[in-house]
C-alpha cells in the first residue's frame, strides 16, 4: 500500500512534495494526489472540535494528526502548558493498551504516564486513522478519471481520409474546415473526382468511427459517481443511490446504516477519549460534533462527561 499522509509534519511534507508520476504506479500521480486531498477534506468536513483558545493556531494540526495518525497525545509541559502533540505510545497494561507516551518534536520533548500527566485521544479501536480509506478510493477514482480522459480524446477521432496527392489532401482539409465551421453547403471542383486512389472515382478513402456506439464517457462518469458514493457511505456521508425515488423504506434504512458503521465507532472512541482528557485536564473543556448518517451527534464536556456510546 502506498505510504502517504497529510503533511502535518516534516516527513509528510517531504512525501507530499516529492510525488511524481511513475509508469505502473497509479498511486503516485497527480490525479491520485488530487483525489486524496479531495476525499480527505470530505472526511474531516463533518467533524468540528471545540478547543481551548490557546490552541487556536493548532486547530488544523489537531484534526489532521487525529484523522491521519489515528490518535494524538494531550501532554502537560512546563513551557507550553497542556498541548496536543504527535506522539508514540509505549508500554502495555493488562488489556494490552499503552501505558505511557513519548513526544519527540523539535520544541517538545516529553515522556509521561497516561492518566497521570498526559492522555491520548484515539479515533478508532485499532489506533489507525482514515488515510487507508482515503487512499483505497482515491486510487480507484484516479484510474476512472484517467479512463475518462482517454475516452474523451478517443471519441474525437471519428473520421480519417487518404488522398492521392498533396493537392487533393489540401482540398479535403479545406472542405473539412468549411464543414466544421458550420457551412451547410460546400462546393468543390469536379476535377477532384479524377483524383481517386488506384483509379477509383472517389478521390478519398475514409474510415468513419461510430462515435455514438463507442461513446463510454457517460458510463465512466457513472462509475466515478458510484465509487464516490461508496466512499461517502463508508465515512458517514449519507449518499442515497440514484434510484432513491424507487427505494423502499428498508433500502433507505440499509443505506443509512452503511453510512453510520465507521462514524459511530469514531464517535464512541472520541467520547471515551474526551471523557478521560476532560477528567484529567478539566480546564480544557473539550467538545466535538460529528455529522454522519444525515444527523449531528454532539459531545459536550459539561453534560456528557460520563456518557458512553
Observed structural traits:
3-stranded antiparallel beta sheet; 9 helices; disordered N terminus; single chain; 2 domains; 309 residues; 43% helix; elongated; alpha+beta
3D structure, described in words:
- This protein is of the alpha+beta class and 309 residues long.
- The protein has helices spanning 10-17, 30-44, 59-69, 131-154, 166-180, 211-214, 217-235, 249-280, 301-304, and strands at residues 47-50, 71-77, 81-85, 88-90, 100-104, 109-113, 118-122, 159-163, 204-208, 287-292, 295-299.
- α2 (30-44) packs across α4 and α7 (217-235) crosses α8.
- The longest helix has 32 residues, at 249-280.
- The protein is elongated and about 95 Å long.
- The protein starts with 9 loop residues before the first helix and ends in a 5-residue tail after the last helix.
Topology:
Blueprint: H1 10-17, H2 30-44, E1 47-50, H3 59-69, E2 71-77, E3 81-85, E4 88-90, E5 100-104, E6 109-113, E7 118-122, H4 131-154, E8 159-163, H5 166-180, E9 204-208, H6 211-214, H7 217-235, H8 249-280, E10 287-292, E11 295-299, H9 301-304
Antiparallel strand pairs: 1-10, 2-3, 2-7, 4-5, 5-6, 8-9, 10-11
Task: Let me know the largest β-sheet.
Answer: 3 strands, antiparallel
- Helix/strand-derived class? alpha+beta
- Strand content is 15-25%
Oligomeric status: single chain
- The total strand number stands at 11
Question: Compute the gyration radius: what is it?
Answer: 30 Å
Shape: elongated
Amino acid at each position: 500500500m502506498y505510504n502517504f499522509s497529510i503533511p502535518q509534519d516534516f516527513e509528510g511534507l517531504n512525501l507530499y512534495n516529492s510525488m511524481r508520476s511513475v509508469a505502473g504506479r497509479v498511486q503516485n500521480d497527480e490525479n491520485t494526489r488530487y483525489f486524496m486531498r479531495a476525499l480527505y477534506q470530505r472526511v474531516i468536513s463533518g467533524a468540528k472540535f471545540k478547543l481551548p483558545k490557546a490552541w487556536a493556531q493548532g486547530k488544523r494540526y489537531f484534526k489532521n494528526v487525529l484523522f491521519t495518525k489515528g490518535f494524538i497525545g494531550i501532554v502537560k509541559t512546563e513551557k507550553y502548558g497542556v498541548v496536543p502533540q504527535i506522539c508514540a505510545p509505549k508500554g502495555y497494561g493488562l488489556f494490552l493498551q499503552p501505558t505511557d507516551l513519548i513526544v519527540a518534536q523539535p520544541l517538545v520533548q516529553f515522556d509521561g504516564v497516561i492518566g497521570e500527566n498526559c492522555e491520548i485521544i484515539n479515533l478508532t479501536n485499532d489506533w489507525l486513522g482514515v488515510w487507508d480509506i482515503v487512499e483505497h478510493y482515491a486510487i480507484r477514482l484516479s484510474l476512472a478519471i484517467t479512463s475518462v480522459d482517454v475516452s474523451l480524446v478517443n471519441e474525437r477521432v471519428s473520421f480519417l481520409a487518404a488522398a492521392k496527392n498533396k493537392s487533393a489532401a489540401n482540398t479535403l482539409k479545406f472542405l473539412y474546415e468549411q464543414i466544421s465551421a458550420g457551412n451547410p453547403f460546400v462546393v468543390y471542383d469536379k476535377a477532384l473526382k479524377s483524383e481517386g486512389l488506384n483509379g477509383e472515382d472517389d478521390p478519398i478513402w475514409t474510415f468513419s468511427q461510430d462515435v455514438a456506439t463507442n461513446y463510454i464517457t457517460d458510463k465512466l462518469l457513472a462509475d466515478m459517481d458510484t465509487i464516490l458514493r461508496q466512499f461517502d457511505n463508508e465515512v458517514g456521508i449519507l449518499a442515497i443511490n440514484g434510484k432513491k425515488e424507487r427505494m423502499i423504506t428498508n433500502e433507505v434504512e440499509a443505506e443509512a446504516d452503511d453510512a453510520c458503521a465507521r462514524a459511530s465507532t469514531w464517535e464512541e472512541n472520541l467520547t471515551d477519549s474526551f471523557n478521560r482528557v476532560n477528567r484529567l485536564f478539566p480546564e480544557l473543556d473539550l467538545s466535538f460534533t460529528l455529522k454522519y448518517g444525515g444527523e449531528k451527534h454532539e459531545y459536550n464536556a459539561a453534560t456528557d462527561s460520563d456518557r458512553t456510546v
